[in-house]
Design goal:
The complex is a heterotrimer of chains A (about 160), B (about 675) and C (about 425). In chain A, about 25% of the residues lie in helices and about 20% in strands. Chain A contains five helices and eight strands, in the order βαββαββαββαβα. The model of chain A has no long low-confidence stretch (mean pLDDT about 85). In chain C, strand 11, helix 6 and strand 12 form a beta-alpha-beta unit. Chain C starts with a strand and ends with a helix. Classes of the chains: A alpha+beta (about 160), B alpha/beta (about 675), C alpha/beta (about 425). Chains in contact: A-B, A-C. The interface between A and B is large, with 38 and 41 residues.
């Protein structure tokens, strides 16, 4: 299945992804309506986008006492059925990534559902930090990135200019 | 929509736009899009959108038919020209309308009716870089991100200002390129910089000269370019000597060690170095020379028109719509041309700030009417108070816009304008050398596109012969003729039609478009106009002659992702995100003034004052002593503070990013001026 | 091979699903004394509160058991298990053979030794039947007394508050939710409850229940000088006992709190496993037999038991207590260990905002997180959630930032990195 991968080395915390998600979920541009959240730590200059990674063995699904969380057979996304959810928040306590939020108006838990297979956050990510790729190859970009760094170092070690 | 020119998919249902996203095949944005693009859906159908012409009457706005509006406007224009002369009318084209054929239509119109007075937002944008680079290289080069090894961003923040550059820069970084950001603030892009150098506002030139000196010192410069293709190198070399790391540190605040690191990175990556300069360097008293110095740097690095450096793009050779050959009208004294001969001479741009004084004083001659299209100077020009007075003093002010903006509210006639979805026009993406023809998915009755408007008005004023084409499409065909590319061909290439393959090092075969044909470190052109021939660095006045009553330096205009100058403030969904407006302040300064985050303060300059909440940043997000306020907010319009009487002498650009101000809490009475920076 | 599961709730269902993942051939049977369909006990307070319709309490239907190829016999109690012949007997006399048996029969509420604590108007709140009986009694203006301030009790009290009853909570120990909160959080919650009009009394002893004539159906008489409490109904939430009478005569060790099991949910008698509220299994803190009567623990134990029953060896890493509920306008949650025990290596990280009543506390020892307490908003749960894997692993918490940790997270990250 395809998942949304996030690269903190590319993200600039512009939050376009949050706006796009909030717009899709609730028609607003407010961060609290977004399933994807970007953290920014100015002093460390660290930008981290975080959203559900649709675990193979989802902690949330297993723990839900209302049997409201299931896996979409087409997209593979772990989804909360808002009609079954009672708002007990056990899933929020279970998810180690903090990827589940609580919709205080509807009183249900909400999370990323991969927009049914065409995730908006990825389309609106202007830096390219978010990609929608097959899980098997999800972090291949790290290899490229690492290769570039190694090439740099090796080139230096060999004493030449690149 | 904005100045980034993204390729979009527009989804229609029963003739109505329901969604917008990015078009994957176009090389410019590759399917990605920012939220503003999506918001065009809100914009086009906004409840406040104007659909009918409005006329100001004693009892308020009155809706009148379009034909009547055009008739009345033409009649009044004729009357004004008769009484005060043909040059008493000006045309002002705003950013909302774009920079290609729409701009040229406006320029054509004003000359067609006998006036040389074309104004635009470029009195304060773009031209600074265009002039600075052109004086040195003969053109403003485009960054070649795809092949670069080092990117330097000077006062530019692509994620908020030109979102597409962000993905280009990040792709380069994935391939191993490094990113250096020079900005007094930790802007969004700076968050990912390998080196962030917080430069004091307006002192970038000193930093550049310091880098030049460092390169020259180690002999790390492109000798072939310098010896065979430049003039004035000895003067440059001599001038650079003074900019030792210690001098640079004192002037800019950038530590000597950091300067050394940047210089080393430059030497290592040359010639594949991109220097991209943003609007951040234009709004200063010394902007042009700071920018010229960067053009010098490009040359010394050998990055000029080289792969991975700054490429001299080849344009798409459409016909020109302007009448500068047929009817130059320079003898009529275009406003600002005498004061800023370079601005007029190189860009045929009149000076908007001078226009305000002209309107109010009738000197050098009366300026009595302005036709504005897609411009909102009552919010975006400096010294709002004077702008309003001046616009209100006009005998005729006509504004074309989507909404009743702050400027439109001062008008005699307001005409509904077509949005970007209601026009079909040519977009040239010089970085990829492709040209794209946009489709026109929508049109509304009574809402004219740019061509229709100028055409109808010109006919009424006896200048119809200059607008002979039936409509926009026919005009576009005419523009395309010399290129050999047809409208149909373009329509078949929504991903962009490559009009010329990309070539480098063209300076080997042909001279540059400078008077000498070479890179001009020293410019005889400028010297002839009375300016120093070399891009000498002049410290900003807040450093050289600080006023103790105004101990802070205010930068204005940092971009926000969801707003575009004064636009999109009326999209309610945008307005509810984040704190709008706000003043950014360093925590040490806030602590000294005992200000809490979110507290309202009054900020005052010599020109005016506003009140707004303060946002206390993290210590590395802004320089101590520096403040930032973004423009465009009705509730706290920072242009009530900005100067229209301090300019860069060459471009005439106003000082907007290094303004001396004072801050006081609203909770307590004003404290005596604090003289510690 | 014949696999039989006694029970039809969290542990049983998880066990059945886990069993079938590894063994599709053997016979699988689920038995339960309670009639079906399976429902979620955790959701009963939401039903009482009126925020959940009754039909949403049910978490499995016939189709689910068919998918599992499981036979079911609900509403039929097991009366006897024979661990030598490997059979069990149902109430109507039917006998079933088993090769693998999972005891996941849960618990039942126990009434404290209070005189006359029985009869009309006295309620327990454990089963759906209890909830069905209690719900029509929750009428505005009535007076309800809740004995015990455990998680279920307080949630029921909140439901009563929401429905406009006048609520009194009586707790024997010095503070409310003693097993779920620390002292500060208990005090804050008590204050919050009083702010909502509830009469909260801690450290009280109950002597007896009287039935005075006239307009007061019940009177709860307290020991010492505490004033008595008049009530229209009394809800007892003062403890549970495991349903294990059918194991009498077997070699299975049964303690007051349940059946001790090892990390594979084995009882010590070959072929017999136990999971859920009826079991005492390993905890993540190294206790061999902890009483964690929690839904997530039951699910985890059930999964382990089911896998082992199918011959797939699986070891339980240990249960970690976690609780969350919303009451009195607060999200109340805790996880792991959050009470200091005087060890000098312990360090508490606390965020407390007296204005809003928000209280978040995390306990570390030597850089390793032990647990925490939250009285705040749903967003605050993410802090505990992020710590969960590290509490389980006993690993130092060098947390990677993820919203919405905000200020607290910052503190964590900075604190952890200094170690």
């Amino acid at each position: 299945m395809r998942i949304v991968t996030m690269d903190p080395e590319i993200c600039v915390a512009c939050r376009n992804c949050e706006y796009a998600c909030a717009f899709k979920q609730a028609g607003t541009f407010e961060r609290r309506d977004s399933n994807i959240r970007v953290s920014f730590y100015p002093q460390e200059r660290v930008c981290i986008p975080g959203t559900c990674v649709h675990c193979e063995e989802p902690w949330c699904l297993e723990v839900c006492p209302a049997a409201a969380i299931g896996r979409n057979p087409e997209t593979g996304a772990v989804e909360i059925d808002p009609d079954r959810c009672a708002g007990c928040k056990m899933c929020m306590l279970a998810c180690p990534y903090g990827a589940i939020r609580f919709d205080a108006k509807a009183r249900v838990a909400r999370k990323c559902d991969l927009c049914g297979g065409d995730p908006q956050c990825v389309k609106f990510c202007i830096s390219g930090a978010l990609q929608f790729v097959e899980a098997e190859e999800a972090f291949a970009f790290r290899r490229t990135s690492l290769d570039a760094k190694l090439t740099d170092l090796l080139g230096l070690a060999k004493g030449g200019r690149r | 929509m904005c100045d980034d020119h993204c390729a979009l998919n527009v989804y229609m249902e029963e003739g109505r736009v329901v969604d917008i996203d990015g078009y994957k095949e176009h090389p410019w944005n590759r399917g990605r899009l920012c939220s503003k693009g999506r918001a065009a859906v809100d914009l086009v159908y906004h409840p406040d959108r104007l659909w009918k012409p409005l006329k100001r009457t004693a009892s308020g706005w009155q809706e009148i038919p379009l034909e009547q509006a055009l008739d009345e406007i033409a009649e009044r224009l004729r009357g004004i020209q008769k009484r005060y002369g043909e040059r008493s009318i000006g045309v002002w084209k705003g950013e909302a309308v774009g920079f290609a054929q729409q701009e040229e239509m406006a320029r054509r119109f004003v000359h067609a009716i006998g006036s040389p007075n074309y104004f635009s937002n470029d009195s304060m944008c773009f031209n600074g870089r265009w002039i600075g680079y052109t004086v040195v290289h003969g053109a403003w080069s485009v960054p070649d991100y795809e092949h670069t090894r080092l990117v330097l961003l000077w006062g530019a923040n692509p994620p908020h200002a030109h979102p597409n550059m962000t993905q280009m820069i990040m792709r380069a970084r994935r391939r191993g390129a490094k990113l250096v950001v020079l900005d007094p603030r930790l802007s969004a892009v700076a968050r990912q910089a390998d080196l962030h150098a917080p430069v004091r506002p307006g002192t970038d030139g000193a930093l550049v000269w310091g880098l030049i000196r460092a390169l020259l010192e180690r002999g790390a410069y492109d000798r072939e370019l310098v010896e065979n293709h430049s003039v004035g190198f000895p003067a440059l070399e001599a001038y650079a000597r003074a900019f030792t790391p210690e001098v640079v540190e004192r002037e800019t605040g950038v530590p000597a060690a950091l300067l050394g690191e940047i210089a080393a990175a430059l030497a290592k990556a040359a010639p594949a170095v991109v220097n991209y300069v943003g609007n951040g360097l234009e709004h200063h008293e010394n902007g042009i020379n700071n920018i010229r110095a960067i053009a010098y740097l490009d040359t010394l690095l050998g990055a000029l028109d080289r792969e991975g450096g700054n490429r001299l793009a080849e344009g798409f050779p459409t016909r020109r719509l302007t009448l500068y050959q047929e009817r130059p009208l320079t003898e009529l004294g275009p406003i600002g041309a005498e004061r800023f001969p370079v601005l007029y001479g190189l860009r045929q741009e009149c000076h908007t700030m001078t226009a305000m004084d002209t309107i109010l004083s009738d000197r050098p001659y009366p300026l009595k009417a302005l036709l504005l299209t897609g411009a909102n100077p009552a919010m975006t020009n400096p010294n709002t108070e004077k702008v309003r007075r001046a616009l209100a003093a006009l005998e005729l002010l006509v504004v074309r816009d989507l909404f009743l903006t702050e400027t439109a509210q001062l008008a005699h006639y307001v005409l509904p304008a077509a949005s970007f979805l209601e026009r079909s026009e040519l977009h040239v993406h010089a970085m990829f050398q492709v040209v794209t023809l946009t489709k026109k998915p929508l049109s509304f009755p009574g809402v004219q596109d740019e061509y229709q408007f100028w055409h109808d008005l010109a006919r009424r004023l006896g200048a119809g012969e200059f607008f002979p084409w039936k409509d926009e499409e026919e005009l576009t065909r005419w523009l395309l003729e010399p290129t050999g590319v047809t409208l149909e061909q373009l329509a078949g290439h929504p991903e962009g039609y490559p009009y010329r393959s990309i070539r480098y090092e063209k300076w080997r075969e042909a001279p540059l478009h400078t008077p000498s044909g070479k890179v001009e470190f020293t410019s005889q052109y400028l010297k002839g106009l009375g300016y120093p021939e070399l891009a000498e660095y002049k410290p900003p006045s807040y450093q050289s002659s600080p006023d103790p009553a105004y101990p802070f330096v205010l930068v204005t205009g940092a971009r926000k992702l969801l707003f575009y100058h004064s636009r999109f403030q009326n999209i309610e969904r945008f307005a509810r995100t984040g704190r709008n407006p706000e003043m950014e302040m360093h925590p040490a300064d806030a602590a000294r003034l005992a200000l809490a985050d979110g507290e309202r303060v009054r900020v005052r300059s010599r020109v005016g004052a506003i009140e707004l909440p303060v946002t206390v940043t993290a210590p590395n997000e802004i320089l101590p002593g520096t403040l930032q306020i973004t423009h465009g907010y009705r509730q706290a319009n920072v242009n009530l503070l900005t100067h229209d009487d301090v300019f860069d002498p060459i471009s005439g650009f106003p000082l907007m990013k290094a303004i001396q101000v004072q801050v006081e809490s609203l909770r307590r009475p004003a404290t005596p001026p604090d003289t510690t920076p | 091979m014949k696999a039989v599961i006694i029970g039809n709730s969290a542990a049983s269902l998880a066990a059945a699903e886990a069993f079938r993942r590894y063994d599709r051939a053997s016979e699988l049977t689920l038995l339960a004394a309670e009639a079906g369909p399976a429902y979620s006990r955790v959701l009963l307070p939401y039903y009482l509160r009126g925020s959940l319709p009754r039909e949403r309490l049910f978490i499995r239907g016939d189709a689910d058991y068919r998918c599992l190829d499981a036979r079911t016999a609900f509403g039929r109690a097991v009366t006897r298990v024979d661990d030598r012949r490997r059979t069990l007997t149902l109430a109507d006399g039917e006998e079933l053979a088993w090769d693998r048996l999972l005891v996941a029969s849960g618990t039942r509420p126990v009434l404290p030794r209070v005189r006359d604590l029985e009869g009309p108007g006295i309620h327990t709140l454990w089963t759906l039947q209890d909830a069905d009986r209690l719900l029509p009694e929750l009428l505005p203006g009535r007076r309800a007394v809740f004995i015990g301030s455990g998680f279920v009790s307080l949630q029921a009290a909140w439901a009563a508050c929401v429905r406009g009853l006048r609520v009194t909570v009586l707790e024997a120990l010095p503070r409310v939710l003693p097993k779920v909160l620390d002292q500060t959080a208990s005090a804050l919650l008590e204050a919050r409850m009083r702010g909502h009009g509830a009469d909260v009394r801690c450290a009280v002893g109950i002597e007896r229940v009287e039935r005075p004539a006239g307009r007061t159906p019940l009177r709860v008489v307290l020991s010492c000088e505490d004033p008595n409490v008049d009530a229209d109904l009394v809800v007892v939430g003062a403890g549970v006992r495991p349903n294990l009478s059918f194991l009498e005569g077997t070699a299975v060790r049964v303690e007051a709190g349940g059946i001790p099991v090892d990390e594979r949910m084995r009882t010590g008698v070959l072929g017999i496993y136990a999971a859920g509220d009826a079991a005492l299994g390993p905890s993540v803190f190294g206790e061999a037999h902890a009483a964690h009567a929690l839904w997530p623990t039951a699910v985890e134990q059930g999964r382990v038991a089911g896998a082992n029953m199918a011959g797939h060896e699986r070891v339980y890493a240990g249960s970690l207590n976690m609780n969350v509920a919303e009451m009195y306008g607060l999200t109340v949650a805790s996880m792991g260990r959050f009470l200091e025990n005087g060890d000098p290596a312990e360090e508490a990280v606390v965020e407390h905002d007296p204005r809003t009543g928000r209280y978040v506390k995390l306990l570390f020892r030597g850089g390793v997180p032990l647990g925490g307490v939250v009285l705040g908003t749903p967003e605050d749960l993410a802090v505990l959630a992020a710590l969960r894997p590290r509490i389980r692993a006993g690993r130092k918490a060098r947390l990677v930032p993820a919203e919405p940790f905000g200020g607290l997270h910052r503190t964590l990250a900075l604190k952890a990195s200094r170690r």
